[in-house]
Amino acid sequence: MGARKRLAAAKRKEALKTQYFAKLRNVPSSPRKMRYVVDMVRGMEVNRALGTLKFSKKAASEAVEKLLRSAIANWEQKNDRKAEDGELYITKIFVDEGVTLKRMRPAPQGRGYRIRKRSNHVTLFVGTKTEED
């Protein structure tokens, strides 16, 4: 690794120390379905978002709820205190496409239809409103 690349990596690593986030990787659902759930809670206060996810009928909401609880715990761990009501917000949340498993399904007359089993990665950042301003 060259010096410039090493310096850029160190700079990125230092920037992540001041941010509070959690990642959920290789979730076995399509990114499109996960983005629908993520769009419901983007920018919300964390307690309100937890309530929204808990009572959502979408299967992906369970995974996002668990991820949000993890991000809150990460914030509390780094700040050595509990989060108060109305203090934490979801500052940034996004879904990336993961690996796609390719399978074949038997079809008539000796053919095969392709099945794509998609997965995704979710990244969630939490922070206070004062940090954002």
How does this model look, in words?
The protein has about 130 residues and is an alpha+beta fold. The chain has one domain: Alpha-Beta Complex (Ribosomal Protein L22, Chain A). Helix content is about 45%, strand content about 30%. The protein has helices spanning about 5-15, 30-40, 45-55, 60-80, 130, and strands at about 20-25, 90-95, 100-105, 110-115, 120-130. A three-stranded antiparallel beta sheet has the order 1-5-2. Strands 3-4 form a two-stranded antiparallel sheet. α3 runs antiparallel to α4 (about 60-80). The mean pLDDT is about 95.
Which characteristics define this entry?
133 residues, alpha+beta, Ribosomal Protein L22, Chain A, three-stranded antiparallel sheet, two-stranded antiparallel ribbon, 5 helices
Between the first and last Cα atoms, what is the distance in angstroms? 36 Å
CATH C-level label: Alpha Beta
Low-confidence stretches: none
Briefly note the structural class of the backbone.
alpha+beta
Morphology = flat
CATH architecture: Alpha-Beta Complex
CATH topology: Ribosomal Protein L22, Chain A
Task: Estimate nothing, just give the exact number of structural domains.
Answer: 1
Q: How do the helices and strands line up, and which of them pair or pack?
A:
Blueprint lengths: L2 H15 L2 E8 L3 H11 L4 H9 L5 H20 L8 E10 L3 E6 L5 E6 L2 E9 H4 L1
Antiparallel strand pairs: 1-5, 2-5, 3-4
Produce a short descriptive summary:
With 133 residues, the chain is of the alpha+beta class. It has helices spanning 3-17, 31-41, 46-54, 60-79, 129-132; strands at residues 20-27, 88-97, 101-106, 112-117, 120-128. It has one domain (20-132): Alpha-Beta Complex (Ribosomal Protein L22, Chain A).
